Structures are given as structure tokens and as C-alpha cells.
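Sample entry (308 residues):
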Amino acid sequence: MFPYLQHNNMPPVTVHPRPTSSSSNDSSRNDATTETGPQPIPERPRKRRGPTQGFQTARIVKVTQKKLEVIIEKEDMRATGPNAPRFANEIGAAVRQYAPLNKIRWKDVTDAEKSPMYSRLENMFVLDYDKRHWIKEVIENDMPIRFKEFRYELHEFYETLLDLPMAERKAKKHDQVLNQEYWDFLCDYWESEAFKNKSKRNATNRSKLTHGHCSGSRSFLNTQTMGLEKINGDLMTKNEDDDRFSTWMKCIRYESMNEKEKNRRYRISYNRAGTYSQIKIKKHRQKDTHEEISGSIAKSEQERSAKV
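Predicted structure, serialized as C-alpha cells:
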């Protein structure tokens, strides 16, 4: 049948057609599909950002072999500068790792229990308590906030277990709670009447807040400081556009630039004010208008003096 496949010592090749009658198998497959219906595709759990553990900061300190600088002014009582977000994250990581969760209030935490938290921060950042004694006060004011936020995250996880009996809730400990005794204490505390009344009162007060914090781990003070540094020219580079700055800010910046920088700024402002020549014409027109006003004022003063 296929002579090019035959050989002298080989038998002739015969091709058998594929059977086409498979109606019984197809019908059974279709019946099974119609009975059960299409199987839904299982959804993958959404990948979310996990809690900050300080690995990146520790890696930077290990590679550079020096601690990170953090700016904390006495009049601000808040960390500012490029390392301020890392400093805030490290405080939260230290609280999550070392804070005792069997204490209802942060005031009940002893100095011995706070010591590992301070040691972790001192290993990462330059904290000179002797010259800047207010830094410890700043850390002490920030730790209760991180403690409260951590307890809130744990309570949110606990609310997903309310359909289970208490024994199973205590068995499903949160991953960030390192001690089972802490989790048992929190479960009993969240079921107390004192906590429920306090939670209801706090939820009512929180509902009155119209605008929440929306700058992430960067504080409002740090955002304001960075904005002032941009206005003063400390963080400005030649690649920054002028769209982010107002007209009066451009005038201040033009005064401190050399002639080459001025020409570059004129080329950038082509789309807004026209060509370089048109800008010069506008400036001449403003100058002429100013001279006309000055001349009219001088003329009116002369007429007034002549009448007198």
C-alpha cells in the first residue's frame, strides 16, 4: 500500500483504520458531565504582605558593618529622615517578638520585659541616650501604640473563630503568638464582659473619625519634613520636573541657578509658556507696563505739585 515503506526482507505494511464508533463512551461521558455539572476551579489564596520581621534592616546592618542613622529632634519627638520607616517597623517587630501578651495594659509591662526590645533597636540603629536622652522617651511613647495594634490584629483573627467552641479556639493559636499561655489568656480576656463593653464603646468613637491615616508607615511629620527639604532644595535633582512645584517656587529656584541651568529650565517650560523668544517678549511687556505705571504716577505727582 505504501511502497516506500516496504523493504525486500520486510512483510508488506498494512494500515488499519481507527474505529469511529464510540458513541457509547461519548454518551456516558456527556451524561456524567450533565449530572455533576462543570467543576469549579479552586481559588488560590490571595498573596498578602506579611508582618515586618526586620530581615532587610538586619541584612543592611550586616553588609555595611555599621548601624543606621535615625534623626530624632527634641522639638519634634518623632523620627524623621530616610530611615524613619525602618525605625518604626523595627519597633513594631520588637514588640511582636518580645512583648508579653498576658498583660492587659502596656503600663503593666516591667522594665525587665522591655529590655530585649531596646536591645534589638540598639543593635540596628545609632541611639545615643547620653547625648540625646529624649530618644528613649520617643521609643517608650511608640511601643504602646505598636502593642495595641498587635493585639488588634490578634483579635481580628480571633473573630474568625467565633463559630467554634472555646476549646477549639484556644487550640488554633495565631502563628505570631509564641506562647500558648498567652493565647489562652487573650481568649479568656476577649470573652469577658469588661472587654466587650470597652470594645463597643471604642467602636462607636472610632466611627466618628472621618479621615484616617493614609501615608503608610511614614508619619505626617516625616512627610512634612521631606516636603520642606524639597522646597529648600536639599533633595532636588536635575531630573525632577517642575510640575510638582508652584510658580512662586520656580521664581525662588531661578534666582539661585546659573545661566546654563536657566536655559534648561526655559526649555522645560516650553509647553506651558511658549518658546524662549515668547518668554522674553512677555518679560519685556511686563517691564513696559511697569514703566508706564511709574510714568503715570510721576506725571500725576507733578500736576498735583503745580496746582499747589
